[in-house]
Specification:
single chain, 204 residues, alpha/beta, six-stranded mixed β-sheet, 5 helices
């Protein structure tokens, strides 16, 4: 097992959730920004390829095990869009994060005007590599099903959280406490599976 783990993301919301989920483990969690890791390109059309690229990139620059998440919103009526482009759906990546989130949400609302099928799901894949060229990356996936509302609800979270209504709780992600969100979200499900795999490895 390892004592340090680099988290390959610059997204503060994702980092907060991952740190919360990993907190029971005796592992020092280090954001890649603290080690001056440059941003990794995400040129692929699948979540898993992008996550693997980010994990290998962070491990290469730090010499440490690295965990990367790639996740996004897949809308049924839009054939899975925005998908891997969720964070930059509206374009203009130069915008501050809050403004980019707002632009993404507004674009989604606009393209779904008049659409009756508003079912969607969040998807997350977590990839952990123990070293840059790890031939056996640890991979875990999760999904979170719901629907897209026509207006915002809630003040917490980030990204599409105020528009995504959870099927089971009847609340948007932005209305859920972090503890509950981390347990039932796509990232929470993926992380739970990842933790199970890590526990098995620690006993081998």
């Amino acid at each position: 097992m390892f004592s340090k783990l680099v988290i390959a993301t610059g997204n503060k919301g994702k980092l907060r959730e991952i740190e919360h989920i990993l907190s029971p483990l005796d592992i020092e969690v280090i954001p890649q920004s603290a080690l001056s890791v440059p941003e990794c390109e995400e040129p692929f059309c699948t979540f898993i390829e992008n996550a693997l690229a980010k994990a290998r990139h962070a491990s290469k620059h730090t010499g440490l095990p690295a965990l990367a998440d790639d996740s996004g919103l897949c809308v049924d009526a839009l054939q899975g869009t925005p998908g891997v482009l969720s964070a930059r759906y509206a374009g203009d990546p130069s915008l501050p994060k809050d403004e980019q989130d707002e632009a993404n949400n507004q674009k989604l609302l606009n393209v779904l005007v008049g659409e009756k099928n508003r079912h969607a799901h969040f998807y997350c894949v977590m990839v952990l590599v123990r070293y840059e060229h790890d031939p056996e990356p640890i991979i875990a996936e999760g999904q979170w099903h719901g629907e897209i509302l026509t207006e915002y609800r809630g003040n917490d979270g980030f990204g599409y959280d105020p528009l995504f209504l959870d099927d089971k709780t009847g609340k948007t992600v932005a209305e859920l406490p972090l503890e509950i969100k981390c347990r039932i979200s796509h990232r929470g499900h993926a992380m739970a599976k990842l933790l199970q795999k890590l526990e098995r490895l620690s006993h081998e």
